[in-house]
Design goal:
The structure is a homodimer. The first copy, chain A, is built from 17 helices and 18 strands. A seven-stranded antiparallel sheet of chain A has the order 15-12-14-13-17-18-16, sandwiched between helices. The first copy, chain A, has a five-stranded antiparallel sheet with strand order 5-6-10-8-9. In chain A, strand 17 and strand 18 form a beta hairpin. Chains A and B meet through strand 9, helix 7, strand 11, helix 8 and helix 17 of A and strand 9, helix 7, helix 8 and helix 17 of B.
Chain lengths: ~475, ~475
């Protein structure tokens, strides 16, 4: 630490009781994201233990003109939690604020601090005989504060909604360093502007989320998984429609997988096995959940598949007969990202379009990419039930990956221009951070950007909250 | 019309193609609410046909310093759609913007203009084989724009959420007279601040909602109703817990009714019949819905009641055997307001508390009222599944109603102080308007009011959008 840095943080050490890191080696893990895509600098990393501590740190930052960069599990994919290179920021890590403050089984709510790891929230709910449905790949290390600040999605959105829809109330430290106690466990409250939803998804640019009241649900008795072969995305859509009408809220996942995705998983994962004798251009993983019994879930799922087979929506299908088989089928979907990464670099997109237009979008996007970058291989999969595709693009077979990776901006533009033409979103569940900030500004109407800027200016007039994220400075 | 008024609106007539009312008799219905509780004045009532028209009217108002008062079906209960007495406002009635712009059965969305009557939205959904669940007493005349601007609730919130949770996207005319096209039919979109939810529930104080994309659902095959006698609100809560664990999302209504409520309905409605031989202090109406068949709904509901009887949660119960019986049971709940009104004036409260605390709240509120106003009769009913009670208070038997009505502010204070102590809401589903504006300011923390004011100032810097509603000027 330089003398200047020491002076710069001396005052900070005195204003709160939590941990303060200033040594370069201590700060290092907080100054880059988990994939190492972004790197920044900071004068200190503060780890407060209470909302009052967070408020004290923020007040100190406000008085000293120091940017505040809130950070949860640091598992984001858009660079939203990494400070810039300026070195003036204080990273506020919520990791030590990880208590479950309350759990109310009759109100079906859990009140948790922002630093609670998602898996711990799930576990606390389960221990009380309840179910907390938010579930993502990073659940073992991401925090509830980060999930709310990016409005995280995951595999249960179809039935239970994203982080926003699971949240009833928030505690937030404002840019002025005041604590707003909005920890209401109410299903109905129409007493003014919806501050809660403004802070959710704001990626820490309007304040620091320090705690939240989240909804709980009855614990399902059984979850059954089917894997089916479908001739096209349009057939998958018609199957979705049928499944929603037959299973209703018993339909808890509906995931699309392309033939290439399955091929990559079979190639890279020794344990993976093709469920069918013949290859199909597309597959769908369907999950049915029942509150009462496995028998009911099985009956509903098998009846659905029989009807779909009759209607020629599916060419083949299998229902997992055991938990191990269910895991194996889910693994075919969940291991796609890793299998594709093992092949080499690829260019990622996290997009959403209206569900009804998914088939047309996939077709046009594949055609546009083939025209602009002959031979590239789209690796298409995602949460079809939410209209959310992870439309990743691998280089032509045999072509060097490093050269291809340099085309990222151009490939993004081809895909995202089409997303915009389809009335879609260029960041369905990962947020903007710095990764998609400027693209979002290009695709959004000026009136929307002006409204966003007016709100930012009103709530954070000195622009110290996570500057450069969501909106360009 | 005075010469001054004529001059004041001449320019307005030229800027848009819709209807403009300036004669006193034409304007009269727009200058008071349906119950006649508030009366105001305006220089004109504009009835635009398009969002561009609304924008033109708002720009004219901005240029001429005229307040804008948006109005839908004018069925609100908090005075949010009535102009003040100043006479400078332009009422913008959305009534003529009542088209269904689009309906997408695969995306499960309907795009409607703000002036669409709620019942018409339900009907359009049903015609397409889908279900639009928002349902309230005023559904025959309230509009979707008003429902969104007040974040309306109703009888299906337990399963489907309130207006906010049913909305995917909005079109809004900003205070500057620009059209923000946020009509996205997406289930996932994490590209910046949540403007949608900021405009929802803002009661027209941040802009004019002109259209919305709403969620649709599969149409249920059957709805079954049971009416049960329970010894206490706490028993009702334990029954709710059991019902949620047995029926899950098949539980679509859970309404509490006190003995006095039932008595009033039986007294005032000739057709009403007590379902039970013996009177009970409390009742619950339970509705179970099934996507597939009535038999399944009946099986689930009867199993629930048997289990609840076994556990001594309910003393008696009946399941409607026909549609006519189901209507008769629902009428016992739906006619309470009218039966109470027929008795004379009463003092109303639309409150929410955490569901788990409903029993304690009712007990303490009854005791506090008995202490402060001996002999008053609380008429307690509401959406127990949402923690939302309509906690109305009638005068002591035989006491003059007019004198009692003058105690409104004092009675409100006793009930709302307790709501605040229970961490509840003083307006669960009716909004603030002018009715609860000052009370809300008293109960909310200064930091929350300051945030709301900062947002209002940022988006409507000249304070012309529905001034005096939600926030004091």
């Amino acid at each position: 630490m330089t003398d200047e840095q020491a002076t710069a943080t001396d005052g900070l050490r005195g204003v709160f009781s939590g941990r303060l890191l200033t040594a370069a080696e201590d700060m290092a893990p907080f100054l880059t994201d988990w994939r190492g895509q972004w790197r920044g600098a900071a004068r200190a990393v503060a780890q407060p233990d209470t909302a009052a501590d967070v408020a004290a740190v923020v007040r100190w930052c406000a008085a000293n003109g120091a940017p505040v960069v809130p950070q949860g599990g640091n598992t984001g994919l858009s660079g939203g939690a990494t400070p810039d290179a300026g070195g003036r920021a204080v990273v506020v890590s919520l990791a030590r604020m990880n208590r479950v403050r309350a759990l109310d089984t009759l109100n079906n709510t859990i009140t948790v601090e922002a630093g609670c790891v998602l898996k711990a929230v799930q576990a606390a709910a389960a221990e009380a005989g309840r179910y907390f449905p938010l579930s993502l790949a990073s659940e073992g290390s991401c925090t509830i504060g980060g999930a709310l600040s990016t409005n995280a999605g995951g595999v249960a959105v179809l039935r239970y909604g994203n982080a926003r829809e699971l949240c009833l109330g928030l505690e937030v430290v404002t840019p002025a360093g005041e604590v707003w106690d909005g920890l209401r466990g109410l299903r109905k409250d129409n007493t003014g502007y919806d501050l809660r939803d403004l802070f959710i998804g704001a990626e820490g640019t309007l304040g620091v989320v320090t705690a939240a009241v989240m909804k709980l649900f009855p614990a399902p008795a059984a979850r059954l998984v089917a894997f089916v072969a479908v001739p096209s995305p349009d057939a998958a859509l018609r199957l979705l429609d049928l499944a929603q009408n037959r299973l209703g809220p018993g339909l808890t996942a509906f995931e699309l997988v392309s033939e290439l995705c399955l091929e990559l998983v079979l190639k890279r994962f020794e344990d993976a096995r093709d469920p069918f004798a013949a290859r199909s251009p597309w597959y769908v993983l369907v999950e049915a959940t029942d509150l009462i019994s496995e028998a009911r879930a099985r009956e509903a799922l098998e009846a659905l598949l029989a009807e779909a087979f009759e209607a020629e929506l599916i060419a083949d299908g299998t229902v997992a007969a055991s938990l191990a088989q269910a895991r194996a089928l889910w693994a075919l979907r969940e291991n796609i990202s890793e299998a594709q990464a093992a092949e080499g670099k690829n260019i990622k997109h996290d997009v959403a379009v209206p569900i009804s237009r998914i088939g047309a979008f996939i077709e046009e996007a594949q055609a546009a990419l083939a025209r602009a970058f002959p031979g590239v291989r789209p690796v298409v999969f995602g949460h079809l039930g939410d209209g959310n595709l992870h439309f990743n693009v691998s280089p032509p077979a045999g072509q060097p990956h490093e050269a291809f990776a340099k085309l990222r901006a151009e490939v993004n533009t081809v895909v995202h221009d089409l997303v915009a033409a389809f009335g879609g979103s260029i960041s369905a569940e990962h947020g903007l951070g710095v990764l998609r900030r400027d693209e979002a500004a290009r695709y959004k109407a000026p009136v929307e950007i002006a409204l966003m800027r007016a709100i930012k200016q009103a709530i954070d007039p000195h622009g110290l909250m996570n500057p450069g994220k969501v909106l360009a400075p």
